[in-house]
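Give me the fold.
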Amino acid sequence: MKKYDYLVIGTGAANITTDAAIDAGKTVAVIEKGKFGGTCLNRGCIPTKTLVNPVDYKMDFARLKSKGLIEGEFKLNWTAMGARMWNHLNHQSSQVLEAYSVEENVDVYQGTGFFTGEKVVRVKFNDGTLSEELTADTILIASGARTRIPDNIKGLEKIDYITSETFFGDKFPKQPYRSLVILGGGPIAAEFAHIFANMGTQVTIVQHNPRLLPVFDPDITETVLKEYEKSGIEVYLNSEMIQVEENDGVKKFTIEHRATGETKIIEAEDLLLATGLTGNSDILKLENTGVELDSRGWIKTNEFLETSVEGVYAIGDANGKFQLRHVANYEAEILAFNLFERERNDAGLAVTPRRRARYDVVPSAVYTHPQVASVGLNTKMAEDQGFQITTGKFAYGYTIKPFAMGYDFGKPENFVKIIADQKTRRILGVQIVGPEAAILVQPYVNLINTGEHKFKILEPEIGSAETERERKEFTARYLDPRTPDAVNYTMTIHPALSEVSTWASSAVEFDGPILNAEQPIDLE
């Protein structure tokens, strides 16, 4: 059995922790079954936004032309868009692999990692052979997730369909589809609908939920739906796809309204499944370990990212808390600090309290049109938690910058909404619909994350001896909003231009040991 200090399954956000282990002089095993760089780089936020941005420019052009401000025609080049995207993905992925391959204390295993014992891993290489058994003092599971394939659609197994994995794989189209049905109404569905509707594809969305993008408030999603109608996107809400069949290259989909039972048949060239994600715990063979899963199959982790096996951690899609790269980055940075970077005494023992993850200030953005973004609680969540809420809205159309961008002055279609608590006067959440929503929400993310915060214990039955001690000793923390760490300890929506300004804080260097800027306090 080969022994390492640190072993990681996955090369997405986990690279942050892996790099910290390398910098600390640890021996490292890196296991990756696919392209290096993880979901975000290869089949998630980066390739989708690379396709979205040119489409956004097309819509900007059309808006300015409608005002008589510019002339001519705007034509998107799908072949060039795809080539630029693939060139970036392949280059970045190769760079990650090369960087780890040349490290002296790093062994790279290209294949599928799986557990054969409590902290024992083997790798099935991509050529089908097996590695020797591997173990490590610290193991990080960052194995991502994959599209959840519905099992209740008759005939689905008989047709060829698309997922985000295959779209950014061997099924990337040489030209935009003539027509496309998208099953699902979340962020992936909305972004693909935006891309292809503006590439000339007839797009139809079939959504199980009564609302599109249901994590946002109804006034936000209604604004998006109105724009979809203008773009020619058909949306069937509160509907199930019950049957699929294909004849002569044409796919026919039978959908049923969940409330009325009314059925309808729609046709399209292809089908994209945007039906949510499922974890890869089955691939990991966690049944050979004491690592516990929740009822949905995600790995249970506490606020320190510990699993139920001491020395084994999980981040990102693997723990199922949020399927967002910036959440995984945040978790990886916490682990990098806790495991490899915090101040230690002469005996090598850590003396600085660890950082903890909090999930009540998670920002998100959907790059559809109009763009939407949020942080904190939506209205229903706030009311369900017993807050007496008050809200305030301010429209883009009441300021001059959007007018300069070609929007109508005085029209309130796009807006920022603040949700606050009447009792404490504190901001509970922010929702935005309109241009550059991802940038506009970031100051609120930073603001809400600072100041006093009472620690929330996650999975109380999970915890090392150090965890139990810190849970008793420190019940809360204070994060000074005047420090660069106040920004460093905040999630930044990825990818967004706000990363440029927020990540500048991480470039600030101070003399002395690396400390936890979240000063522990006692609010009891």
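The domain at 2-44+82-146+278-341 is CATH 3.50.50.60 (FAD/NAD(P)-binding domain).
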